[in-house]
Amino acid sequence: MDGIRELLGVDLPVVAAPMAGGPTTTGLATAVGAAGAFAFLAAGYKTPEAVAGEIAELRPAGRPFGVNVFVPTPVPVTEADFRRYATRIAAEGTPYGLDLAAAARTEDDDHWAAKLDLLRAEPVPVVSFTFGLPPAPVVRDLRRAGTRVLVTVTDPAEAAAAADLGVDGLVAQSGAAGGHLGTFTPDTPPPPRPLPELVALVAGRTGLPVLGAGGIGGPGDVRAALAAGAVGALVGTLLLRADEAGTGRTHRDALADPLRDRTVVTRAFTGRPARGLRNDFIDRHEAAAPLGYPALHHLTRPLRVAAAGAGDADRLHLWAGTGWRAARAAPAAETISNLTQPL
After folding, report:
1. Which reaction does it catalyse (predicted)?
2. In which band, very low, low, confident or very high, does the pLDDT at 106 lie, cut at 50, 70 and 90?
């Protein structure tokens, strides 16, 4: 396991993926670290002050950890298409007193500059980027500060572009992963490939250390990723029901619901392709949903918050990868242990 130690400073080849929007907590990261694995904090959708607070919570333990940042690569949507979709889904918000048809089209960069300033001023062991390539000066500055830099890629061409920036490693994310696909081109995602195939292609193209992500449902999937050339495997969905995760009750219950029988890739909730459990909102609106991130994310967020609070799983984004059936309500350490026995 020398590869994972050299890249991330841990011995176990399992990494807790960053799950933005609530599931990743400092408690989860602490538990994963205490189990001997590596954990990412999710900076997405948080203020820089909140991210700084989480970093400060983890530092005293002295264990390596990482921070994941969304690269601002907006997917534009016209005002006409935005208004058309807002009007279409307006009835979904009526039970909660929401006027979605009147929502403003909001674009932002998720506090990009301020988060980078924080990570330059208060370096962490590892920073990973998702949704695109960070500018070369960002990679240079972070590495000079002693931070290892990773980029999420979904095909060999993206991997080659990231390698040209001089990054330290890559996260090869297959289409089986839960949540947003990290593709640089959300309008034309790469063809789906089994994770071991993607890992082999990315490692062979770049020669960089690779972490495999997507569809991990048990130790056999970890072994397959390692056999294909990965130094470790990212696990997200399997930790959604962990005791220490911040996953909401409605989402947790849906993951355990035997009537939820498949995951699908959808842009209906956020305007960017993401994998989650199929539900009625997706069935009603996927065909008409435009690309448009983060505008659609902001449009549907009040609805999703209300639905989560009301136990309404059919109006909530139920992010999950294809290995969701193996997610268990248990301490995170138990899940890590199960994934690494035997390796």
Report:
1. 3 propionate 3-nitronate + 3 O2 + H2O = 3 3-oxopropanoate + 2 nitrate + nitrite + H2O2 + 3 H(+)
2. very high
